[in-house]
Model the fold of this input.
Amino acid sequence: MYKIESKIKYAEGLYGIWVDAQYVAEKVEPGQFVMVMTHEKGERIPLTIADYDRSGKKIFLVFLVAGKSTAQLADMNEGDELFSLVGPLGKQSEIENYGRVVCVGGGTGIAAIHPIARSLKEAGNEVISIIGAKNKGLIFMEEDIRKVSDKVIVTTDDGSYGRKGFVTDALKDLLDNDEEEDIARVWAVGPAIMMKNVALLTRGYNVKTIVSLNAIMVDATGMCGTCRVTVGEETKLTCVDGPEFDGHLVDWSEFMNRLMRYKPQEKIAMDLYMKRRQ
Ligand code: NAD
Ligand code: FES
Done:
């Protein structure tokens, strides 16, 4: 169960794994995530599903080493089995034929935007995708994104590939040149600051924007309250009410503050793990 069938190293600390997960592969829909544990005493890691193969009974997950638990996941290899994998969790993306849509994926968020863009395309939308990363080496799944998009714009912060700048620069140009004002909806997945800035930008153009919040989670079943966020002055639980919300209604300062609250403990755990590994 939950065997890692294959592992791809995209860049230092950036990996993709195909995992044997029959029940999740049968049911998963775009926008949903799984909780992974590498071993019995491990932390539960929420990971958005990047792809799935229903007949092959497997799912594809992409992760960036950001702390001890993702470092432990990166240390696992083909043939190893995850201790547990629970899902699919969260609500699926609201896929309809909106007309013209823009899918924005930043950093590891490129993975999560892929099944959303594919379903939007299958539903008859014209899909423009913007994918961005710090540099060329951190752009991944570009071909997969191209297959499900009518147009793809690639950005890198340092200009080593595609257009130099942030994904928001490319999005602003699209919105400015949208003379017929027919961009019906924007999806954005990536670091919180990127999703916040996408939402701030699109608000000025009155384009509805859906973001996928990467809140800290513990149980992921709506019981602990760890993942709570304020959306339109209501308290919501990212794991069961989300992870997708209207970006114009998210209380971004609260969300970003809550993301930072275990940083000192995360650093201690990572330092200890790296010392033990040596
Ligand atoms: P990163 O810091 O490399 O940023 C990726 C891209 O986001 C940049 O290339 C840029 O285009 C854009 N960006 C960054 N800062 C910006 C700013 N201030 N304004 C506008 N755009 C900006 O990203 P990373 O290191 O790959 O981190 C990925 C993050 O995405 C992690 O925090 C992870 O938790 C999160 N994530 C979220 C989900 C989700 O479902 N919400 C899924 C995967 C990853
Ligand atoms: Fe516990 Fe969402 S992670 S309520």
Remarks:
- The pocket of FE2/S2 (inorganic) cluster (ligand 2) is lined by residues 217-220, 222-227, 237, 239 (CB under 6 Å).
- The chain is about 30% helix and 30% strand.
- The first strand starts at residue 4 and ends at 11.
